[in-house]
Amino acid sequence: MRLYAKASLDIGEIKEKRRCGCDGIEYNLTEEFMIQGAAFREFYPNEIFTLHNVEAVHVPYMANKQMMHLEHIFQHADDSAITNVFRLAQYCADIWGHRILVVIHCGLSLYDFMEFELFHRILEERLAELFGLYPAVDMAVENVVPVEYKPGEGNAPRLCNGIFLDTVQIVTALRESFKDRIGSVLDTCHAMMTEKYMNAWLREADFYPDGREVPMEIDYSMEHYFKAHRGLCKLIHFNDFIGNGYQENHGTGFVSQKKVDDFLALYRKYEFDCPLTLEIREENYENCVNFRTTKRLIESNLRRNGVST
Prior knowledge:
Elements: E1 3-7, H1 11-20, E2 24-30, H2 31-36, H3 40-43, H4 47-50, E3 54-61, H5 70-73, H6 80-96, E4 100-105, H7 110-115, H8 117-133, E5 137-142, E6 147-148, E7 158-159, H9 166-178, E8 182-187, H10 188-203, H11 222-229, E9 233-237, H12 257-269, E10 276-278, H13 289-304
Parallel strand pairs: 1-2, 1-10, 2-3, 3-4, 4-5, 5-8, 8-9, 9-10
Antiparallel strand pairs: 6-7
């Protein structure tokens, strides 16, 4: 099993992740890349791209804590943001001699994806161009949390985004045109938060006005996630959450061996063979304590199951 590490375009952080013993890097792009991306080779030291094996590139994370989703990027006439991400990915593919994965969130429901005809057509046309221009780059769509929460006085959580398995269905639809150039990313933190909030709101509240119970076949379990992503998943973002799962509670390291064991049992049960990115929050990204703890828990499981590490 290959274990990757999320890292910013920062030499100190990449060196620390290399010391941690990861098999590859998934770049965590920020708003800085939105500004400098067209000239990334001049702006960033080349050592950043040659220091340690690069496997994936995540679309930029914005200063306002919002991620650039697929529907945000492709709805604009100027889609240089995603073009620059693909250019970076192809540049790294040429350096390291293997395919690179671009990871992007998608907040659309399947209904919106199919019914927004103009967006759907533009998306497929532009993806066809990008895949043609950057032949060593694939793309994977990551599941999101169907609850949005912005801290602040008077703000309350709200339901939004595609619910549960919409990402899997959207990927399946895109594969009709792009085959295995498109896949999914299963983020365990996002999936667990979905399970927590949807179960709480649908099962523990009076969701149906006539008093009927929510049918049990609505299954938000982690097993259902693994089963649905089987055969589509190119990468797992392997992380936990605490509390409400937002801000500093999001993407935390694992501390429970049992939870890690349970997830890896599902990984084996549904015959996954994709790598894991340990997308772990740290107090100091040049001393990745939480990454190392999670990695030890994974390696303990692998040893007990006779898998070489």
